[in-house]
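INFO batch 0412 | record 1 of 1 | parsing
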Amino acid sequence: MKVSAHVSPSEFVAVLMAAHEGLSSSQSLTLNAHLLLGLSQRVGSIDVLREAVEEARLSTLAGEPHRTRN
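INFO prediction complete | emitting tokens
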């Protein structure tokens, strides 16, 4: 997947972790769902979304941290 890196991954992780602070597991799952739906609307391409989901799934199954390819 071709991406342009305008966001520091560590900065985004810090923002995401702060958003989850104090939430229950159920609330965290809901937050993630809302975030993903909002971001998907901004991406606007089902092909890009499919590729990103597949990369995240494979990375998760392999126990690797998420990486993006350029």
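INFO post-check: The chain has a mean pLDDT of 86.
INFO record closed
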